[in-house]
Give the backbone structure.
Amino acid sequence: MRIGLTGGIGSGKSTVGQMLVECGAVLVDTDAISRALTAPGGAAMPALQAEFGPEIERPDGGLDRDRMRALAFSDPSAKSRLEAILHPMIKEASRAQAEAAGSRPVVFDVPLLTESAHWRHQVDRILVVDCTEDTQSQRVMQRSGWSQDQVRQVMAKQASRQERRAIADAVIFNEGLSLEELRAQVQAIWRQWVPGMPQAPHAVEQ
């Protein structure tokens, strides 16, 4: 079983991903792979420096994500040039991690799954974590210190809630839920999609 997990920024997608790990899944986190590729000494850094110049590199040798984000917003071609470098490397690393999982269910945490026909064709089921845009903004501002304008800029570049929900096999509406209530919904979907798969020993039963 291969599950695609997606949701807008601030939706709680990463929390749901960890709860699926509790259930027994292997998590392939494409954001984490991207961060590793663009960390100091990361495999993507030489190509990014060649494409965008030394100004996108932090003093420690990693990608200056704030500068890169600003460039992508100001230059429409910058985003596609960035993706042309990163996406093939992310796909290859994701494939290797999924193969290493063997027969265990795999969850692909992909923020841009809705926008990517490639990812939609790689998974058996799609789980969307959803909440209102106001809640997204509040959560991201609290955790990151961004202004509301910065958060809204990022949200505007992502698929809409309606577009994400349209591709979903299941939707978790993560609005006003406690962690226990959220976990119960995740476990219910897991039991439906992966029948007979025992949960990990440390999973929390409701």
Notes: The longest helix spans residues 76-100. The chain has two domains: 2-25+104-193, 39-93. The longest strand covers residues 2-7.
